[in-house]
Design brief:
mainly beta, 9-stranded mixed β-sheet, 5-stranded mixed β-sheet, 34% strand, flat, glycoprotein, TCTN1-3_N, cilium biogenesis/degradation, TCTN1-3_dom, Tectonic family member 3
Amino acid sequence: MGPYTCCQVRGGDVGMETTGLEIKFCGQSEFRRVRRGAVGRGGSRLEVWEPSSHPLLCVVFIALPVCVCDLTPGTCDINCCCDKDCYLLHPRTVFSFCLPGSVRSSSWMCVDNSLIFRSNSPFPSRVFMDSSGIKQFCVLANNSKLNYFQKLQKVNATHFEALATEFGGGSFTSTIQTQSPPPHYRAGDPILTYFPEWSVISLLRQPAGVGAGGFCAESNPAGFLESKSTTCARFFKNLTSSCTSDPALNAASYYNFTVLKVPRGMTDLQNMKFQVPVTLVSQAGSPLLSGNTCQNVVSQVIYEIETNGTLGIQKVSVSFGQTNLTIKPGTSLQQHFLIRFRAFQQNKAASLTSLRSGNPGYIVGKPLLALTGDISHSITLMKSKGDGICSVKRHEVQFGVNAISGCKFRLKKMDCSHLQQEIYETLHGKTSPEHVAIFGNADPAQKREWMRILSRNCSVSAMHCTSCCVIPVSLEIQVLWAYIGLQSNPQAHVSGTRFLYRCQSIKDYQQVTEVPLTTVVTFVDITQKPEPPRGQPRIDWKLPFDFFFPFKVAFSRGVDSQKGSASPVLILCLLVLGVLKLDTM
């Protein structure tokens, strides 16, 4: 309030607008009254006090905590009802209006005026007329939420960017958005190449002829899965210098790079599993200037690219056609470029037609398919000869059929590690299964159709016995499977497979001649069958069996509810009997 500390209202009632006043001790030892003016209703006077020698209970005018229209310090801003420099208790009586934001927002709670007989509310109240012409009795809500800000958020470097993105708008500076490469090639996409020598990513080019003369344009990229042939011409002003310096004539420039299997290989160029080298079908010599002839000039380039669906490019091979050019003015060369795409065949053995164990789901009794490397085969069990010794022949594991087999393994004179390896091969077969087919028609070329086998070998702990050897003596193959699909045509698929080996420590294994081995196969059905559908509830009709049923019910209810009183039904019956008696008379 400027240089004055507090003020006091004296006189009559100051009315409803004094709700903005606060009564408190000024905190000074004494006050001195200074007359500044009189404002208020019923003769109320506003007096301003300065510090005196006695404590005084004062009434302080509380302005808004934030006065947005107080733009002139020390001066009363016109129509700014929250300006402390105006010293106004009732600014609305002085100013023609209050600027927006200079008065507290009010919130009125209203009900129909006809419901209120008399108001004794301590809060300000008024009667308003709504748009329909109905009077509404309204009470001013104290401490309206409209007058308060939300709690300020603490901003730090961790979530600054997130808040700016969520609540921010446009910006004068463009934001560089790094787009991650797609997971696999699509038809027509350019094929990415990588030059390890210079650490440069480029595109596989297929020069094409442009213009009337068909000049070679090097910038034409090859499209994924787009097999096509192009032809173009090259003209040389000085073939003597171009013979060994022009990369278009050198076969090495067409294979001294690697091809990225999938575009995401750009993110990890050091990982060679995303790169495919270009292999030569036949050797091609480098250009050589011999007298008046430029030898080993590339005249034809043929790329063979093998793809495997979303797994991308699996193999790239290139073959060349070469010719010799005679050096003379205006020498030209016509080059042919051919790119062919075909499906990737991992192995000749894998590509051979093999019998399925179901299509798609497994059929009970069919072989359980496994995959080792790129070769598909069936999981097998040991087989014994007539004398019980392990045979080289084996039984096929049939899907859904639990089995057990055993034989005697004759120990040979060899060290412990070789002995362990030979017994492992006897238990699971010469080729250790790595994956199991999820369905009976799994394709060896499609890795997603196979599931890795969980295997737990023997744990060989440190032993003080020098003549001991820990060898596997049994193998338990556990297969979890389930039905999926329609209940009318369910399809069996493998959910998981585990190989568990049990081992035994043998002392003086060089002196032992035979060890019994056992293999057990168990299939566990984990099908979760859906709940059977529930039908509509039946209507249970309950009808009375005699005419007097309603009267019995009413009479029984009357006796239960009004014991000792006359039943209305009984009175009704007496009236009916009286009427019948009158009729008979």
